[in-house]
């Protein structure tokens, strides 16, 4: 019997929620999943529907969810459904919900531009940085064998909590115009246990070309497989 995956996508269109999730439909099918796709989080409030899913993939940047929808998502994960996502589709969702933040364990705060681009509106706020496995990441099935790699894209400054198991990190070093005065280490990928469910998240994935990179695509593919019931 195949497993069942729910994809919920929508919110801010700048993250291409449809095109980005479409990239992973063949991956999910190869992993043996049948798929349901929704364009709002309304299904989260339906307990009988949510009980069917082995994996939930969310790509909803910003957007909104009701108290009942967030509670339903939390309950489904606690009962054993996996929850995964990338970039703002998972950790910049439902900003008005403390309960959702508690579930994911991280919240997007900023993506500071490089110093030379500060104040510009005609370029993306990109930085060049290195993504490095942690000691735990070197042993984890999602990131075991991964080498450090360089990337130029948004560098997420995230607020996190200590329940996360961080697999990949990056250093956000201050440029001359930045307000912080020392390098800070930011998580790039992590897992989280929530009741019987597993959560996998990564800050990477701002654009489709980033998701097409073999290192990023492979990271998310293994995260999908690991998180599923």
**What's the number of helices?**
9
SS content category: alpha/beta
Cα-based radius of gyration, to the nearest Å: 17 Å
The coarse silhouette is globular
DSSP E strands, number: 11
Residue fraction in strands:
25-35%
Distance between the termini: 13 Å
Strand order of the largest sheet: 2-1-3-4-11-10-9-6-7
Output the helix-strand order.
EHHEHEHEHHEEHEEEEEHH
Major β-sheet, in short?
A: 9 strands, mixed
Low-confidence stretches: none
Report helical residue fraction.
25-40%
Mean pLDDT across the residues is: 97
Tags for this model:
229 residues, two-stranded antiparallel sheet, 11 strands, alpha/beta
Structure notes:
The chain has 229 residues and is of the alpha/beta class. The chain is built from nine helices and eleven strands. The strands form two sheets. It has a nine-stranded mixed sheet, sandwiched between helices. The protein has a two-stranded antiparallel ribbon with strand order 5-8. The longest helix has 14 residues. The mean pLDDT is 97.
Helix/strand layout:
Blueprint: E1 3-11, H1 17-22, H2 25-30, E2 33-38, H3 47-50, E3 55-61, H4 67-78, E4 82-86, H5 88-91, H6 98-104, E5 106-110, E6 126-133, H7 135-139, E7 149-154, E8 157-160, E9 165-172, E10 184-194, E11 197-202, H8 208-212, H9 214-227
Parallel strand pairs: 1-2, 1-3, 3-4, 4-11
Antiparallel strand pairs: 5-8, 6-7, 6-9, 9-10, 10-11
